[in-house]
Design brief:
alpha+beta; seven-stranded antiparallel beta sheet; 13 helices; globular
């Protein structure tokens, strides 16, 4: 018998409310809204506002800035999954004359294309997109700042190029493709390129006085794929569920898992801080857990989406001020509060429905030299190899249907695992990318590279 997880406990809800109340008060935010997702559904919504009366609810739009990039990345990966492009394709293959050198589609998704961080002046976030009608106006005369593929350098023009790529291969405007292929299938009917009532106004708050100044809400034109969208906590909560689980109407679970994997080389400070970037998703270590998602900012607005896939908890935080609350910290804290106060209840253990005897006989301890490993066959992970010490190389494996398996992660990703059998059919050893695993340390009955001393194991006499 299982017990469903209903709403959050009162103490957890109060802790969440306290966290966003502190963020709104100390950050001098005109308003701040947040939502928490667990078990594939929204379980909490909270709001704080400087206006007396009814606070903003989960259907009030805020501008989400660079979270837009994640939506654009989803469109690009759909093209890849359909075979219309390869992530290794040079952008010039599909957009000749763009001038981005040898940068690939994957480079632009991961911000390793070497492109400039911003478009030429004037500052694109606070001026009309009509000032940059063509892609050449966005990229400028010298688009590149770094060698392609050598370093992570966040680039807004890079995502403009990706949006143009989507338009070229789909034959339709970026926003139209987004609505048809992502927003409508996922039911994100309160996400749009232009604000729809009810929506928050964007404000700049004076850093030294409790006064405010309205910010312009410009149409970004060509730069739209980098930061145009407006959305709500309700819609972004559903988007978080999609990024954690996938949805075959949009992208498979395997592809969104690919988005969440680090794809960019980090600088020394980023490595130390546990920060990386995937394919349209930011990745960071916070409070000992891995968070994926994205932050966003445009004049008058800040946004954050943080997901802990392992905890099955996500948080959305939106506010309508140019600077103030550190929303990445707030989002991480909301995830932590729920994950620690109400830990995820694991699914019940269940046995495999069936098992191949030739695979079952491989389960158990194996040795690479003197290093002890366990090969496990489980319903949750399939075939996996892991060090008995808990420290070292491990991987899950996918069957190839011919008695071999391919590694899925870490050092053994893409490497072939094969059970080598003797003429009588018994297993001699495992071959994993040329490494020999034996049932006993340096088993003299197996084909150990370099051979085994014929005098065997000994002490010091």
């Amino acid at each position: 018998m299982t017990t469903p997880q209903e709403e959050l406990l009162p103490a957890t809800r109060r802790a969440l409310l306290h966290r966003i109340a502190v963020a709104q008060a100390e950050g001098h935010a005109p308003s701040l809204v947040a939502a928490v997702v667990r078990d594939g559904r929204t379980v909490w919504h909270g709001a704080r506002t400087s206006v007396d009366g009814h606070g903003p609810d989960e259907n009030v739009q805020y501008r989400i800035g660079s979270i837009t990039k994640t939506f654009t990345a989803v469109l690009v990966l759909r093209l890849r999954d359909e075979g219309l492009l390869d992530l290794g394709d040079p952008v010039e293959k599909h957009l000749p004359g763009t001038g981005v050198g040898e940068a690939t589609v994957a480079d632009l998704l991961a911000h390793t294309g070497g492109l400039a961080a911003e478009s030429p002046a004037p500052w694109w976030e606070r001026t009309p997109g009509s000032l940059r009608p063509e892609l050449a106006d966005v990229l400028g005369e010298q688009p590149l700042r770094h060698p392609v593929g050598r370093r992570f350098h966040y680039s807004n023009p890079g995502y403009t190029v990706l949006g143009t790529l989507v338009e070229k291969l789909r034959g339709a405007p970026w926003e139209e493709v987004l609505r048809r292929e992502v927003l409508e299938p996922l039911g994100l009917d309160r996400t749009s390129g232009r604000p729809k009532a009810p929506h928050a106004g964007g404000w700049a708050v004076h850093p030294w006085a409790d006064v405010m100044l309205p910010e312009p809400a410009e149409d970004l034109g060509r730069m739209a794929p980098a930061g145009q969208l407006w959305s709500t906590t309700s819609d972004l909560a559903r988007f978080a569920i999609f990024l954690a689980q996938g949805d075959d109407r949009v992208l498979s679970a395997e592809t969104v898992r690919e988005m969440r994997a680090p794809a960019a080389p980090g600088e020394a400070a980023d490595v130390a801080d546990g920060v990386s970037y995937g394919l349209g998703l930011q990745i960071q270590q916070r409070h000992g857990r891995l968070l994926v998602g994205h932050s966003g900012s445009l004049p008058g607005f800040l946004a954050n989406l943080s997901i802990s896939v392992e905890d099955d908890v996500a948080a959305v935080v939106l506010t309508n001020c140019t600077s103030g609350p550190l929303l990445a910290t707030v989002g991480a804290d909301l995830v932590r509060i729920v994950a620690e106060a109400e830990p995820r209840i694991p699914a019940p253990w269940r046995p495999l429905p069936e098992v191949d005897a030739s695979v079952l006989e491989l389960a158990g301890p194996w040795y690479w030299g003197t290093h002890a490993f366990a090969l496990r066959l489980t319903a949750a992970e399939g075939l996996s190899l892991e060090p008995l010490s808990g420290i070292g190389r491990r991987s899950r494996f996918r069957t190839n249907g011919d008695g071999t398996w391919t590694g899925l992660e870490g050092y053994y990703a893409g490497e072939l695992l094969e059970a080598v059998r003797r003429p009588d059919g018994t297993v001699s050893h495992l071959d994993l990318g040329s490494f020999v695993f034996t049932r006993q340390p340096y088993d003299e009955g197996a084909s150990v590279p370099g051979g085994v001393d014929p005098d065997g194991w000994r002490g010091i006499g």
